[in-house]
Amino acid sequence: MKTFLLIALGLLAGASQTVRADDTIERGRYLSVAADCVACHTSPKQGKPYAGGYAIASPLGEIWASNITPSKSHGIGNYTEGDFAKAVREGVRKDGAHLYPAMPYTSYAKMTDEDIHALYVYFMQAVAPVDEEAHTTELPFPFSVRSSMAVWNLLFLDKTPFKPDPAQSAQWNRGAYLVEGLAHCSSCHTPRGLMMQEVGGNAFAGGSLGDWYAPNITSHPISGIGGWTDDELARYLKTGRVEGKGQAGGGMAEAVSNSLSKLRDEDISAIVTYLRTVPAVADKAATRAAFAWGDSAQAPGEQAVRGTGAPITSGAVLYSGLCASCHGPQGEGSKDGYYPSLVHNSTVGMTRPQNLVATIIGGIDREVDGQHVVMPHFSEGSYVQALSDADIAAVATYVRTSFGPGDQVTEAQVALIRDGGEKPLLAKIARLWLPLLILGLAAFVVVILMVRRAWKKRRLRRAST
Fold first, then answer.
1. Of 197 and 445, more confident
2. Rounded to an integer, what distance in angstroms lies between the CA atom of residue 97 and that of residue 78?
3. What's the CA gap between 52 and 419, in Å, rounded?
4. Contact at 8 Å (CB) between 261 and 368?
5. What average pLDDT does range 114-128 have in this prediction?
6. What residue spans of 170-277 are helical by DSSP H?
7. 196 pLDDT band (50/70/90 cuts)?
8. What is the rounded CA–CA span in Å between residue 188 and residue 102?
9. Is the Cβ–Cβ distance between 346 and 331 less than 8 Å?
10. What burial letters (b/e) apply to 336-371, b meaning 16+ CB within 10 Å?
11. Which of 421, 179, 143 is nearest to 278 (CA)?
12. 3-class DSSP state for residue 258?
């Protein structure tokens, strides 16, 4: 009887450990979704989860996501939990090389030890190893010197883990942990400074992401999300679309498809609760909320470009031929809402035309709960029609004038967005490094030659005397 009890107790203990291990793996899986790991570390062409091969567009060049499967030859299979934690929270690989902050370790630094453990267990035990090398990042000099990131980290990396605010509710603290940490919202929605660091005083006030612009998500009623209801914000995060407000495109569409749409409702509510309290930051150029434009929408050809007095015939013709079949001749969209209205549309009404132009150039691709939302792109290779910079400027001007703030989109603006958007000052300065280095070396050689020449003349004079 005693032996039987011991065996039974052993079986129960083993089962309990298995349950705990399964719970840890499931928690780690959910954390990986909340952190949106799969979006960057999975190639859209290759399709092998976490095997790398996705190019993250940055103003300094393409940064390729690495293989983070438990492969011992090409992934993180040889990482201890300490190695893993250092990479995730400090941006330092097992071999000591520094990661670029395109991997948002500046946000992940806030993760708790318990969550790091669960994430490590998930990757090591539940992710299939892929023994394939991911594409190597090759940034131009001086950004290719990874060791320089050690200095950047000293200046800008806050290693302080998240600490709940006892004065706030549990829901608010959960939202703060997700927004500031796992979901790394500030990585996109906060403007960057000279050294590409997040500008803390303008947290969540909006930031340029190459051709796309991550809008202001502070609590400001005009510039931010203060004019959205809690339900609208929650629906947007879960589905990527809210009629009369906006639709997700670009990186936000990826975040909705791969991460936010898969979060528990209580976590979405927590995110909304926290965002409501983010200090308001005003955009001086915004005279009304982005979604508030379009009440006086007119038929194609009736409206003139503000400041020119000229009819926007070419833009109207392009809109009628390419856009009206989906978005409606009055920009009203389809009755079922699948094709969004351009009236009361944040993309159309933003203070800058960046996202509207990026949508026309790159299209929309978003999938949530089996519903695949696709808008064709109008660049080279389009199955609809490739448009020139002048064509896109014309149709964007028509849309902005008929349904938005009424400004003119120029061909130069389109060309800049097609080329990846405005480059930060750091990138512009970096372009001068090589010419300046060559000039410096040339000047050094000239000085050496002049010194040698002067030294020879002096020696000849001494010899002749």
1. 197
2. 15
3. 24
4. yes
5. 97
6. 170-177, 186-189, 230-239, 250-258, 265-275
7. confident
8. 10
9. no
10. eeebbbbbbbbbbbbbbbbbbbbbbbbbbbbebeee
11. 179
12. helix
The confidence score (pLDDT) of residue 10 equals 58
Distance, in Å, from the CA atom of 387 to the CA atom of 305, rounded to the nearest integer, reads 20
Pairing between β-strand 212-214 and β-strand 55-58 as defined by DSSP bridges:
unpaired
Structure tokens at 171: 């829901």
Provide the 10 A C-beta neighbour count for residue 319. 23
Of 290, 294, 298, the C-alpha closest to 245 is 290
Spatial distance between the Cα atoms of 82 and 125, rounded to a whole number of angstroms: 16
> 305-312 — which CB contacts under 8 Å span 24+ positions?
305/397, 305/401, 305/406, 305/408, 306/401, 306/406, 306/407, 306/408, 307/408, 308/408, 312/394, 312/397, 312/398, 312/401
330 Cβ neighbours under 8 A, 6+ residues apart: 297, 299, 343
Most distant pair of Cα atoms in the chain: their distance: 118
Q: Which residue has the tokens 């669960």?
A: 118
321: which 2 tokens? 């031929």
- Whether residue 61 is predicted with pLDDT greater than 80 in this model: the reply is no
Residue closest to 262 by CA, chosen among 88, 21, 31 = 31
User: What does the mean pLDDT of the chain come to?
Assistant: 86
Q: Give the CA-trace dihedral at 248, 250, 254, 259, to 10 degrees.
A: -50
361: tokens are 């150039």
Residues 6+ apart with CB under 8 A from 459: none
**pLDDT(308) > 60:** no
Map 36-85 to HEC letters: CHHHHHECCCCCCCCCECCEEEECCEEEECCCCCCCCCCCCCCCCHHHHH
- What's the predicted TM-score (pTM) here? 0.84
Contact present, 210 and 58 (Cβ < 8 Å): yes
The answer for residues whose C-beta is within 8 angstroms of residue 364's C-beta and 6 or more apart is 247, 249, 253, 373, 374, 375
Beta bridge partners of 63: 56
- Assess contact for 217 and 281: CB atoms under 8 A: no
Above 80 in pLDDT, residue 313? no
Location of structure tokens 């071999």 = 95
